[in-house]
Write a structure and sequence with these properties.
By secondary structure, the protein is α/β, with parallel strands linked by helices. The chain is 46% helix and 16% strand. It has 24 helices and 23 strands. Strands 11, 14, 16, 17, 18, 20, 21 and 22 form an 8-stranded mixed β-sheet that branches. It has a 6-stranded parallel β-sheet with strand order 9-7-6-4-1-10, with helices on both faces. Strands 3-2-5 form a 3-stranded parallel β-sheet. Helix 4 packs parallel to helix 8. The longest helix is centred in the N-terminal third of the chain and has 34 residues, at 2-35.
Length: 624
């Protein structure tokens, strides 16, 4: 009877928990329904307001429904690159749009190549003789690169333009690991594969320093070239070289210093900016001071859907490459392979473009995607690769399927190298007075032994596997790029290259964006008209999650939360620290053999982690 009573109590507890969960869900939905602000219809005409409260990415992640229902929605959001481009390009020929406003107060950036692509869309609007006005309290590298394409650049009188240029600091853990007794066993091929250096060194190796400096210099040159073409009157080089001198010459007024250097056109607050926009696009009769007739980005985008459903399939490989399945924003090998296989079975596409914006990750996930693309080639489909801001390591592994590879000078690519890493805790246990013992039957029993350290047999096995994967990697590259393995090894070794140099080395074929890749693929398949338009091969956004996000989305166009550049710089140490720990966690939790590019952080859209999740893998890495 005691067992029956216990079982009954368990069932009652489960029932009560389910009822409570359903009640919470009901009241959350009721609250959202009562507080939702219905979207009013678009104005007859006005200014398209592209208010970027977050980062521009190739493929946004799904919204977290539990975070939304609990009120813990992220402060920023992710904007899909092609959506931003489509909205801005549509404005160029839309008589309803009198001007385009770039509200960059809360813009957290994006990959350099992605921002160049948005800038090109802004140029299309300007060539249509429509004004584009940019506003921010302060500009950094990413926001100013985009603002430079505007016909009018506005800056708050208390703001500044702070240009830091590409560069990064890495956190090195070896000193800490030595103190707590953690030994990091590293297996790699490639003298430039510096992802493992923080665990075995206290500083950069000479090879890594030279390669990283060359990459930073190349990206900085591309950035300056893009800004100079968009805004020739801006004295970028002198301003960035001596910002203190520019500030002194302006008697300490940072906004005036930016204006004296030709970086901005007008100093004014939001009210003055709004009045300027109203003089072009019309006033908002129901608004307050500085209001104007506005066409909000999300509603404008919904009114101009992407009707493309042609015969050029576009497969997106975005984010870290992982094994198995994954949601948008992460390149799950199995997910992407199944999406492509399903589309091929429908026989709706005649050509394939593979859009890559990934620093790599799992070698098996990368190979799963590659073999799925080869199945498309086996059906006679021409395959063209389009690289985004980054297509390196595992991302480059996937790119070997392309008959033609497009990139931009600012694309980060290469990183043809392989590594693996395993931490062991023998020293930590000794410091704590702990010991371990056991039995085994083969040389690999209990390996990798994190308590005593890995065995010589295990080390030899893993290193041999790493070398075999590297030989396969350079073989794939050599076959795709018509190079000998020796030649690929010379430019490989894990070294990261900017797109301009990669083209000179033969790692990419042409400069160009996604549109260029689609046009070439259509031409190779003899497609024209609507057949030459793209068909996106990707999972449809979760409508439930999108609905929840829309309920909490602001509808105002009065500007985002202003973040001045001084604050952004002050927050950088925290962002770098959390980012470094996040990198360590991903490496520790990842597969034993990885084709991942850590140095590619130059090209990643910045994010600000709000908390650190102490996973078992991370705890093992730090030896706690």
């Amino acid at each position: 009877m005691r067992v029956v009573r216990g079982l009954w109590k368990l069932l009652v507890g489960v029932k009560d928990a389910l009822v409570l969960l359903l009640l919470l869900l009901f009241f959350a939905i009721l609250y959202a329904a009562l507080t939702v602000r219905p979207n009013p219809a678009l104005a007859n005409s006005g200014a398209l307001v592209v208010r970027l409260d977050g980062a521009v990415v190739e493929q946004p992640k799904d919204a977290d429904p539990f975070a939304i229902l609990s009120g813990n929605t992220p402060a920023t959001r992710e904007y899909r690159l092609r959506d931003v481009v489509r909205a801005i390009r549509s404005a160029a020929t839309d008589a309803q749009v009198k001007a385009v406003v770039l509200d960059l107060d809360s813009f957290t950036g994006g990959g350099q190549t992605a921002i160049e692509t948005v800038g090109e869309a802004v140029d299309v609007v300007r060539r249509a003789h429509k004004p584009v006005l940019a506003y921010a309290t302060g500009y950094g590298d990413d926001s100013y690169q985009l603002a430079a394409h505007a016909s009018e650049v506005w800056l708050n009188p208390l703001g500044a333009v702070l240009l830091t240029g590409p560069g990064t600091q890495h956190l090195y853990y070896k000193g800490l690991l030595d103190k707590i007794g953690v030994t990091t066993h590293v297996y790699k091929v490639g003298k430039f594969k510096s992802a493992v250096e923080p665990y075995i060194r206290t500083d950069q190796s000479p090879e890594a320093r030279a390669a990283n400096q060359a990459l930073a210099d190349s990206l900085w040159a591309s950035w300056q070239d893009d800004v100079h073409k968009a805004r020739p009157k801006a004295t970028i080089a002198a301003y960035a070289r001596d910002p203190a001198g520019a500030l002194v010459a302006a008697q300490g007024d940072s906004a005036s210093a930016a204006m004296r250097a030709g970086l901005v056109d007008t100093l004014g607050d939001r009210i003055a900016f709004g009045q300027r926009v109203a003089s072009i696009a019309g006033t908002d009769a129901n608004g307050g001071p500085g209001s104007y007739s506005a066409l909000p980005f999300d509603r404008y985008l919904a009114a101009h859907p992407d009707g493309a459903a042609g015969k050029v399939g576009v497969l997106t490989v975005a984010g870290e490459i992982t094994d198995g399945t994954a949601g948008p924003g992460t390149a799950g090998g199995e997910t992407i392979a199944k999406l492509l296989t399903s589309e091929l079975a429908k026989k709706r596409i005649k050509a394939l473009v593979v859009r890559i914006d990934s620093p790599g990750g799992s070698v098996t996930g990368s190979e799963r995607i590659r073999t799925a693309i080869l199945a498309a080639k086996a059906q006679g489909l021409p395959v063209v690769v389009s690289m985004g801001s980054v297509a390196a390591s595992g991302g480059y592994w996937v790119s070997t399927t392309g008959g033609t590879v497009f990139a931009e000078p600012s694309t980060i690519t290469g990183s043809i190298g392989v590594f693996g890493m395993i931490p062991t805790l023998a020293g930590t246990l000794q410091k704590l007075g702990l010991s371990a013992d056991g039995v085994g039957t083969t040389p690999l029993s209990g390996q990798p032994d994190i308590y005593h350290g890995t065995s010589e047999t295990f080390d030899r096995l893993i290193q041999t596997g790493i070398e075999a994967v590297y030989r396969r990697f350079i073989g794939l590259v050599g076959q795709a790029r018509h190079m000998t393995p020796t030649k690929v090894d010379e430019i490989g070794q894990g070294r990261v290259w900017a797109g301009g140099t990669a083209r000179q080395l033969g790692l990419v074929d042409r400069f160009g964006g996604l549109d260029d890749a689609i046009a070439l693929a259509a031409s190779q398949a003899n497609l024209s008209g609507t057949d030459a338009t793209p068909r996106w091969i990707e999972r449809e956004p979760n409508s439930w999650k999108s609905l929840l996000r829309d309920w909490t989305q602001k509808n105002d166009t009065n500007g985002g939360d202003a973040i001045d550049p001084w604050t952004r710089i002050a927050q950088r140490p925290q962002v770098l620290l959390l980012g470094a720990i996040g990198d360590a966690e991903r490496i520790a939790a990842g597969p034993a053999i990885q084709v991942r590019c850590i140095e590619c952080g130059f090209a990643e859209a910045p994010s600000t982690p709000t908390r650190l999740k102490l996973t078992p893998a991370l705890l093992a890495l730090i030896g706690k």
